[in-house]
Design a protein that fits this description.
globular; mainly alpha
Length: 268
């Protein structure tokens, strides 16, 4: 029995479809690297924050639920007195310090992960990736915090200057493997020539994060005192802190790309 040839008038639906005609699954839209301007960096930060809000919020909440619980318990122990209260408070401060820098590193990796337009790594993966850099993050963070605090207390301007030139310490550590002292030089080299745009990003991002955190704190102020400091504080921080990390990490990428382009032009 011979095959009947397909008629040209045969409806399109009756013809077998070929694999080439199947609709392709759209690939995630990659993130366009912003120019190193205040508007460019913050605009991309808002875009990424909106697209991946659940991811950033969840990562922050996982860490802040633990940190704020320890802080709330330490405050309760201090108010209650007792021989072990001071020791518990000291331990809680140490845990909070390590946890804060752990989250900071994880957020840098989270921003790097979503730059291709999709989130590929789990929350656990992001936190585990920070482990090799944790000691360096804590060491650099303590030194930077002391230097900036002294600068702000003494004359204000030196503190603002240090805050700006050391703005991208964390990305330099976790993405380039810079050591404690090396990270200060690397951050300063990246910011060199772009001081004012970086300062603008830092100041605006701090204001936005601070306003958001305080606003959520007011909204959740109806909670009992313990829950307000624990759950309310964790939610507020999980909303506000990732945006700051986004702005700083995108600043790092913008600066790195600029320096790479300048190096290529000089070498050509």
């Amino acid at each position: 029995m011979s095959d009947t040839p397909t008629s040209a008038d045969e409806p399109e639906a009756a013809r077998p479809s070929s694999p080439e005609s199947a609709p392709a699954t759209p690939s995630p839209e990659p993130v366009q690297q912003p120019q190193m301007t205040v508007g460019g960096v913050l605009g991309e930060a808002f875009s990424l924050y909106g697209r991946f809000f659940t991811r950033f919020f969840t990562l922050g909440l996982v860490v802040f639920l633990v940190l704020n619980l320890i802080t709330a318990l330490a405050a309760a122990a201090l108010l209650g007195g007792g021989s072990g209260a001071a020791l518990f408070v000291a331990i809680s401060i140490a845990v909070a310090l390590v946890g804060t820098f752990w989250l900071q590193g994880a957020l840098v990796f989270a921003v790097q992960d979503v730059r291709d337009g999709s989130a590929d790594e789990s929350i656990g993966d992001l936190l585990r990736k920070v482990t090799p850099y944790l000691g360096t993050l804590v060491g650099a963070g303590i030194l930077a915090g002391l230097g900036i605090a002294v600068g702000l207390v003494l004359l204000v301007i030196p503190g603002i200057y240090l805050l700006t030139i050391w703005a991208v310490l964390a990305p330099a550590i976790v993405l380039e493997g810079a050591g404690v002292m090396e990270s200060f030089g690397r951050s300063r080299a990246l910011v060199s020539g772009r001081f004012w745009p970086v300062l603008g990003v830092v100041v605006v991002a701090v204001i936005i994060s601070g306003v958001a955190q305080n606003l959520i704190g007011v909204i959740l102020s109806f909670l009992p005192v313990f829950l307000r400091y624990w759950l309310g504080g964790a939610v507020a921080s999980a909303v506000a802190v990732p945006f700051m990390a986004l702005a700083i990490t995108l600043t790092y990428f913008a600066l790195s790309d600029e320096k790479a382009e300048q190096g290529a032009e000089q070498g050509a």
